[in-house]
Amino acid sequence: MTQVEAPAWTPMTADERARFDRDGFLVVPGVLSPSEIDIARGAILGAFERAAQPGGHGLSATGSLHQLSAVTTLPELAFLLDHPVAFRYIWSLLGWNVHVYHSHIDVHPQIHEKQKDWWHWHQDGGRQNREIETDPRPMMSVKLAYWLSDVSEPGRGNFTVLPGSHKTNWLPGPPTRGVPWPQPEGAIQITANPGDVVVFDRRLWHARSDNYSPITRVGAFFGYTYRWIAGRDETADLPNRPEWAGFSGVQRQLLGHAGDGSGDHAWGHFPQTTPLYGVLREQGLLDSSIPALIP
């Protein structure tokens, strides 16, 4: 299965680009259809149930699941890699020489006991935020958060962000993460319905809030970056699995496939042989006013 439903590809709008540049994120409602929600949610909850079994992946102390390498874990989720309604933000912002370098599925049931104070606020990218010296640091990557449960009210493990903080290298915080500390001024919990997507700049300061509600939090997260940045996902074995034959060229690119003899290269030296470049070219979407989309 390469796509559950396939609407036409279109670029993000100028208004969306302006809001993303201002706030560091966008909430896009109604991206997934009911059938797509059912497929993704069912697959993730199935993984959650298997992890809870003896010999399974195992759950956290609070009974939650945080499983890396989403498509390696669940090939059924491959359609989320390049879902046209959500993926348009990725190539509009980063261009065509991209792949998924980090992904995960998450299931967080209700927590019944108050958790100890912990400073969860961070920017994505790990060592990038220590070793890149510019101020502000470059965007480098963009993440899609697919919501597969009802987080339309605060207190359900909502994604919490500080709007506009993506151009701030450092956020005042406690001397150590376990010291009680107030939330950053201006922080908000994002509310969303099943099928909604949050698109966010990796530099956006954000945190996951605890879920004390009876509604289990379910989501899938895909981080996209340039293909010359090494991936964290474990995808090397995917080409040897039967599901690989059903993945599209773009999906294979996003899972790290390159160097197949056609000239394609992760550094983007040969755009004519890069699957996503070809699709965007065929659909007349290579806007030369956006540097990342220029060959």
TrEMBL record:
Recorded GO MF terms: dioxygenase activity
Pfam families attached to this UniProt entry: PhyH
InterPro entries cross-referenced by the UniProt entry: Phytyl_CoA_dOase-like
Keyword Oxidoreductase belongs to the record: yes
Keywords: Dioxygenase, Oxidoreductase
Keyword GTP-binding in record: no
Protein name: Ectoine dioxygenase
Upper taxonomic lineage: Bacteria, Bacillati, Actinomycetota, Actinomycetes, Micromonosporales
